[in-house]
Amino acid sequence: MARPTIIIIIPGSWHTAEHAQPTVHALRRNGYIAKADQLASVGLKERRQYFADDVAHLHGLVVDELDAGRDVCFVLHSYAGQSGAETINRVIHEGRLEASAGKGRLVQAVFVAAYAFPAGVALDSRNFLGPENPNFGIDDERHLNTMTDPERVFCLLLKQNAYYQDATPVITSEDWRKAPITVVATKQDITIPPARQEMVWQGFALNWIDAGHVPFISQPDAVADIIIGALS
Fold this sequence. Notes:
Elements: E1 5-10, H1 21-29, E2 33-36, H2 51-67, E3 71-77, H3 80-93, E4 106-112, H4 125-128, E5 136-139, E6 144-147, H5 150-154, E7 181-186, H6 194-200, E8 206-209, H7 215-218, H8 220-231
Parallel strand pairs: 1-2, 1-3, 3-4, 4-7, 7-8
Antiparallel strand pairs: 5-6
């Protein structure tokens, strides 16, 4: 008997599991088991280093499903691509690309309007999001990421804080690239412009959709179709 596959969607910074629900529903309408969760760092009340917390949380989500005997398709959006890639490193180092008795395996990773820097390259939000991107700003006193018009940038209103990371969180190896990977790129993205998406995902085939940075809401059926195709 084939093992069931669960699709786990993780939106990026500022976003909650609620923002992924249109795509979750689109997948369920097509007969797939799907759920959304969110980064541990979403909604922090004070600034601290949180990369390890995000990785630990995502790793727990994946491993719980694998240990329950379900295969996992891991869908990562925006900044979740960074902590998600490190999560995949852990899963691979634990031998979870192959199934074992009574346990599932990681069958697919889907990166949606996402980024994941090379191993050892530190992420500093001040450099990645600004100053050349006028939609974002950094409040150095409070260490908050801010944006001038979130409704225009993300096509939704956001209520969660996002604290920038100093140049410390890094992906520890390139092993995550050994996983089966699908990349969804967004043509109308002003958060991670198309040229920057192409730069980040050199060497991967890009599945372009005509959407902004949060296609879970604006193009849920298109995102679902790509995920389903990756699992076929």
